[in-house]
Specification:
- The chain is α/β, with parallel strands linked by helices and 611 residues long.
- 38% of the residues lie in helices and 13% in strands.
- The chain has 22 helices and 16 strands.
- The strands form 4 sheets. The chain has an 8-stranded mixed beta sheet. It has a 4-stranded parallel beta sheet with strand order 2-1-3-4, with helices on both faces. The chain has a two-stranded antiparallel ribbon with strand order 5-6.
- Strand 1, helix 4 and strand 2 (107-113) form a beta-alpha-beta unit.
- Helix 1 crosses helix 15 (326-335).
- It is globular and about 75 Å long.
- Keywords: 4Fe-4S, Carbohydrate metabolism, Gluconate utilization, Iron, Iron-sulfur, Lyase, Metal-binding.
Length: 611
């Protein structure tokens, strides 16, 4: 019998506020997917030429099943490539999924592929300016893959930063279909994270050479699977699990193992079990409601997840007709304790987190505190209680689930709600005369949660690095790196800022960063007000800052202020920047329509209307 959980009153109030705000948009969305379900073409009703094209390349048994139209058809949307470690394991998945579908009396076909780029490769390079936009390209690619309308359900093979959010947005455009997401899992642990961070800072100071840095990075990123730090890729997996799109406990099982393969096959069979052809129809668009998104935000705060999801969750929710705001994130952070310390918020990696109890433990603890909607719908049906269990292989090789850990296996990595690492979540929304921004506090020492210092203004991370190498970044300072928003240059991640700023902080300077760009889950010990909106190119106040202006970044009170007399500030013109070099080369010229159409960061930085 499932345990009874009383929902925290504040979580309930926030959910009701979201539902009220979203009422009309959500109703229109549900009506649309209901109409799509009614119009859903049966394969037998297709024109004969259409139908023949749809199964022409299939083997005899699959062709016979699809021709008769009696069994379910499963579409596979894959982000496979063998260049990126996280996606290389997906090479084997289509055949596993086909086998599983046949065992269930159906057929599985690869409907289409989506691009999968790696922010780790493009950091500091021109390609990073396509990264955020790749999310919306992936959503579009997913829609193209499913546009043949011959499928009864779909499974989605994707894991990294923009890929899962893009797949979710695309899946919600076909929200009348069930959707199951299938992870590939993290690579085994490599070089300890503290050592990797130490060598990066030594390289930034010129104390070790490129050979030492490359060796450290190669020992960190060394095999198939996701990178093991808790950035956007692994935050994606936690979200897919706590929002009910994964099988329980599936997120952090390592690749190419019998348990991983068993979970992959079981995911396909579950997708086929919840189509409209059976008695347990669970369409993705109905399942991903306000409760699911609140559960996702609570999980984000409780685990100290990636700041990128203050963009992605907003855009994902909008695709389901739900209007999230940063105020919802801030309000939920106030009642959600931080339960995990995973790099960059600690020294452990996701394998240590998983071994200590992982997502099932987090779900159990949050349910016990009433911080999750226990009655949320998942791919297993209604109720999150099943997500407190973890998968195992029985002696005969069959997949089974057992109760997850009742106690943390390592309280330096994972804790219960009775003794959290901090009483509030790892993200905070800032507001003030410089606009609105997000700050990740879970990795920042408490004595650095408030920084007041003069501004040093830059228009690129390369400018800041040059100033660091020249030795001009002396004294306390707030580094302002602007014209990095979505309209300006696609809102790249600015990870190359962290080693030099970390060095300055370690020297005893009080340092913070303010930017309309991104840092994601890899933002660490330096306080960073990111995603500043409105952005500089869109008339944001960040464009009026000058060197020497006193800036206050206050993560305690939630304020982001410039301490300039109001009259002087109001009369000051905005700076401009020549961004022409950011708009051509490496495909960037093709994305001019995206830069023109993209919305503000707080609205998900999306090109889609209503996002």
């Amino acid at each position: 019998m499932a345990a009874q959980h009383t929902l925290d009153a504040r979580v309930g109030e926030i959910t009701e506020r979201i539902a009220h705000r979203s009422h009309d948009g959500r109703r229109r969305y549900l009506d649309r997917i209901e109409a799509a379900a009614q119009r859903r073409p049966q394969r037998q009703a297709l024109g004969c030429a259409n139908q023949a094209h749809g199964f022409a390349a299939c083997g005899p048994s699959d062709k016979a099943m699809l021709r008769a139209g009696e069994g379910p058809s499963l579409g596979i949307v894959t982000a496979y490539n063998d260049m990126l470690s996280a996606h290389r394991p997906y090479e084997r998945y289509p055949e596993l999924l086909r086998e599983a579908a046949r065992e269930a009396g159906g057929a599985a076909l690869v409907a289409g592929g989506v691009p999968a780029m790696c922010d780790g490769i493009t950091q500091g390079e021109a390609g990073m300016e396509l990264s955020l936009f790749s999310r919306d390209v992936i959503a579009l690619s997913t829609a193209v893959a499913l546009s043949h309308q011959t499928f009864d359900a779909a499974v989605f093979l994707g894991i990294c930063d923009k890929i899962v959010p893009g797949l979710v947005i695309g899946a919600l455009s076909f929200g009348h279909l069930p959707a199951v997401f299938i992870p590939s899992g993290p690579m085994p642990s490599g070089l300890p994270n503290n050592e990797k961070s130490r060598i990066r800072q030594l390289y930034a100071e010129g104390k070790v050479g490129r050979d030492a840095l490359l060796e450290a990075e190669s020992q960190s990123y060394h095999g198939p699977g996701t990178c093991t730090f808790y950035g956007t890729a692994n935050t994606n997996q936690m979200l897919m699990e706590i929002m009910g799109l994964h099988l329980p406990g599936a997120s952090f099982v390592t690749p190419d193992t019998p348990l991983r393969d068993a979970l992959t096959k079981a995911a396909a069979q579950r997708a086929l079990a919840i189509t409209a052809l059976g008695n347990e129809h669970i369409p993705a668009g109905r399942m991903l409601d306000e409760k699911a998104f609140v559960n996702g935000i609570v999980g984000l705060h409780a685990t100290g997840g990636s700041t990128n999801h203050t963009l992605h969750l907003v855009a994902m929710a909008a695709a389901a007709g739900i209007a999230l705001s940063w105020d919802d994130f801030s309000a939920l952070a106030e009642v959600t304790p931080l339960l995990a310390r995973v790099y960059p918020n600690g020294s452990a990696d996701v394998n240590h987190f998983h071994a200590a109890g992982g997502v099932p433990f987090v779900v159990r603890e949050l349910l016990s505190a009433g911080l999750l909607h226990a009655d949320a719908e998942t791919i297993l049906g209604r109720g999150l209680e099943a997500y407190t269990r973890e998968p195992v292989l029985a002696d005969d090789g069959a997949l089974d689930w057992r109760d997850g850990a009742a106690e943390s296996g390592d309280d330096k990595v994972l804790r219960g709600v009775a003794a959290p690492f901090q009483s509030t979540g790892g993200l905070r929304v800032l507001d003030g005369s410089l606009g609105r921004a997000v700050i990740k506090t879970s990795a920042v020492a408490p004595e650095r949660h408030v920084i007041e210092a003069p501004a040093k203004v830059f228009h690129s991370q390369e400018e800041l690095q040059a100033a660091f190498k020249a030795g001009t970044l002396t004294g306390d300072l707030v580094a302002v790196v602007r014209f990095q928003g979505p309209k300006a240059n696609g809102m790249p991640e600015l990870h190359k800022l962290m080693p030099p700023l970390g060095v300055l902080q370690d020297r005893g300077q009080r340092v913070a960063l303010v930017t309309d760009g991104r840092l994601s889950g890899a933002s660490g010990k330096v306080p960073a007000a990111i995603h500043v909106t409105p952005e500089a190119l869109d008339g944001g106040a960040i464009a009026r800052i000058r060197d020497g202006d006193m800036i206050r970044v206050d993560a305690v009170a939630g304020r982001l202020e410039v301490l300039v007399p109001p009259g002087e500030w109001a009369a000051r013109p905005s700076a401009s920047a020549d961004l022409s070099a950011n708009h051509t080369g490496v495909g960037r010229e093709l994305f001019a329509p995206f830069r023109a159409a993209v919305g503000e960061a707080e609205n998900g930085a999306s090109i889609f209307a209503g996002a």
